[in-house]
Amino acid sequence: MTFLAKPAAFILCLLPGAYLAYAVYLAFSGGENLLGPDPAQFLSLETGEWAIRLLILSLAITPLRYLLNWPYAFRFRRMIGLFAYFYVCMHLLVFLMFLLQWQWGAIGREIAERPFITIGFAGFVLLTLLALTSFNAAQRKLGRSWKRLHRLTYAASILGVMHVIWIVRSSYFDAVLYGSLVLLLLGYRLLRKYSEAVRKFSILG
Amino acid sequence: MIIKTRKEIPSSEITPESVYRERRKFLKTGAKAAFGVAGAGLLSSAASAQTGDALFARAPADINLASKPDWLVEKAAMRTDAPASGPFNTDEELTPFEDVTAYNNFYEFGTGKDDPARNARDFSIDPWTVEVNGEANKTGTYTLEDILKPHTFEERVFRLRCVEAWSMVIPWVGFSLGDLLKRFEPNGDANYVQFDTLVDSDQMSAQRSRFATIDWPYQEGLRMDEAMNPLATIATGLYDDILPAQNGAPLRLVVPWKYGFKSIKSIVAIRFTKNMPNNTWRDLQASEYGFYANVNPQVSHPRWSQASERRLPTSLFNPRRIDTMMFNGYADEVASMYANMDLRRFY
Q1: Would you say B9 and B102 are in contact if contact means Cβ atoms under 8 Å apart?
Q2: What is the mean pLDDT of residues B233-253?
Q3: Which residues of chain B are within 8 Å of residue A116 when distances are taken between CB atoms?
Q4: Peptide bond into B302 cis (omega under 30)
Q5: What is the per-residue pLDDT for B30?
Q6: Maximum Cα–Cα distance across chain B
Q7: By the CB < 8 Å criterion, does B211 face chain A?
Q8: How are beta strands B219-223 and B233-238 bridged, if at all?
């Protein structure tokens, strides 16, 4: 059954996007309005939420692999990371196309003047680097530095959480949820690194 | 999982705005001509022939409320029409009832725009009291009937501009706030007036949340001259009906030249103060939200450019982005109140 796991995960990751695409299709074909009175805002919110959820999920793969002793988990990591990037791209596309209608002057101003957009955009740039170097060939070519480069995921997830914190209005819920998950997942890595160092040291000593 | 499905109202049941306006005109001329006697029967048959079922699409029982006080429904139905021109009306297309009542910021009922409509279904406004205190002679606790009975309700069509850079055009039912405040005889020390929204975590689910940023009750305030400006409105209804819960039943403020968050909903307290009172968003984030919160396209908000707005409902083909007007287009009526103020400082 394990050969089905990857396609199943692929479909799960795609589902929210497929639903939104269907809703957009209905909107353009004059069908039922699933997007509400402010569709651009709705799409922006939904794509953004899924981007950060999947980004956090991609960060959870390594801890899951070790805590559950489940090496197979690594097979999902790249796919989930790329899906996070896919939703980030959709998020940005909705913003540029539907909210700002490709008014380049306004786009430049928004990115420069609104700190939460500046941060979000920086996260997008980082993830673009990572997506472009996610393929096997790039991995081989970059060798050891690939791993270092891809630690930028940590920075991207922190930028993502800051982006969420910055738009808190009446509830801390999302900020607390995503923020504590990222803290937990990055904290786990620090702890592991620290305990490994201690172990090495004690062997040497 | 945040995929939200919207309970869709079949398009056949939505009253087009043109029908609403025509019907108002028709009812009015009909009532005038026949003084509501022969007119009524003639009227309803003619109107239903003209518009079919759409005429009855907004059955009064449909709105979110546990019950509707008869006297209030009657008063809302008796309201006078908005004048043809002037600040109490506009030629702009009305935002459909379905959107006005489905897309709300009412954080007592949740953070999402569609949360209030979903979470306020059985909101009770009966009984309802308003406590009046502070710098006035006639303080005390008043019932909703005490508060509203002496006033004649009018239709007032205003633009509503949210600080989040979207806007609507809403036909409210209500009357000038000043007329209400005068009845409490504010004294010489009443420089400001503050309002509280209901705190009732049994009914208002988000007030139970541990993650709420707002220290309930939600509060807003106005300077006395602002409150006495005829445009400052106590709204008790919208379109043909009394206010649904998600729009601030049974009474709310509508201050059309200010960002929407000033227009506090479901008011239970009115307080006359000597000093500038707290207002919720300024307390939370003074660098972003001020006391005055006048609509001002020249003063940018850290999160949203205020130079333009999206007039709802938008669509993906047509975002309906329009330029925001100074004081939301009500400069003639209100600008003089701020003549000597630096509006960049007092945002």
Answers
A1: no
A2: 97
A3: 303
A4: no
A5: 44
A6: 60
A7: yes
A8: unpaired
Pairwise CA distance, residues B226 & B219, whole Å: 16
- List pLDDT tens digits, range A120-140: 999 999 999 999 999 999 999
Amino acid type, B119: N
Mean pLDDT computed over every residue of chain B: 87
Question: Quick check: B78 contacting A, CB < 8 Å?
Answer: no
| DSSP per residue, B170-188 | EEEEEEEHHHHHHHT-B-T
> Distance (Å, rounded) from C-alpha B274 to C-alpha B190?
5
State both tokens at B242: 């009394």
Which among A37, A167, A170 has CB closest to B303? A167
Closest partner residue to A116 among B206, B214, B303, by Cβ? Answer: B303
Q: Which two tokens stand for residue B344?
A: 């960049």
> In this structure, are strands B308-311 and B166-176 parallel, antiparallel, or unpaired?
parallel
Confidence of residue B4 (pLDDT cuts 50, 70, 90): very low
d(CA B51, CA A158): 56
Chain B contacts of A27, Cβ < 8 Å? 315-316
Q: Is the pLDDT of residue A60 over 90?
A: yes
Whether the predicted pLDDT of B35 surpasses 50:
no
- Cβ within 8 Å, pair B310-A16: no
Q: Does B182 touch chain A (CB under 8 A)?
A: no
* Entry pTM: 0.86
**Residue B258 DSSP one-character state:** B
